Amino acid sequence: MSPGGILNAASSDKTGQPVAPGSLVSIYGSNLVLVSAGALSIPLDTQLSGTSVTFNGVLAPMLSATHGSGQDQLNVQIPWEAMAFQPPNTSGTARVVVTRNTGAISAPVNVALTPAAPGIFTFQTGPGQAVAYGNTDYAIAALETAGLPFPSHPAKIGDPATLVILATGLGPVDHPVSSGGIPAAGVLSRTLTTPTVLVGNVPAQVVFSGLSPYVGVYQINIVIATGTPTGNAVPLQIQMNGITSRGDVTIAVSQ
Fold first, then answer.
1. Cβ proximity of 64 and 38 under 8 Å
2. What pTM was estimated for this model as a whole?
3. How many CB atoms lie under 10 A from the CB of residue 205?
4. How far apart are CA 204 and CA 186, in angstroms?
5. Among 13, 174, 219, 230, which residue is least crowded by beta carbons within 10 Å?
């Protein structure tokens, strides 16, 4: 594994930000996997193409494994069981090891864990256009000419239908799910802590915050507040557990 190569899979934050149990992370390095593969079922398997990952000895559900000419990438969910946080302890460390069925075992790498460490999914992975869409028309909150493979138009201030934001790392929920799994049909797994969502640095109304029907992915439904700035690239951020997601993730906003 590469030094510092375990990152929030949504934000790809390289500032040393910790990651959270239950979240999706990307692991980068060389010789991690021989053949690219993706998960085919839920709950996720803990091995892809003969490769497995453990966090503090707990096998991680694997979403995808990519073999590249210069660098390999594993997308996995940090097991919920990787660390139990008990007050006053609100942080810890996970020992991460990658193992191949050929017998190759990586040197362990330590990564900082915390109960919640938010990251917003984007179409570019990291900065840029957020994966945020209208709750009724599913149009991405971007210009109509954004060139995305989906319908798009700016999100409207005060729209009661809400804007859905996809994120990871929002922490524990009131109806827990197993590692690698998703909420049962009809069950709302809400985050125990409601995040603060800033649109153009103006707090939005959070209507819902909880797990989505995708492993390790959360959704937040918001109503954009009056007084929010408009524009084609308005910053969108989540604040939680003393951590603010990166400031270069944006949406388009109109009146």
1. yes
2. 0.95
3. 13
4. 26
5. 174
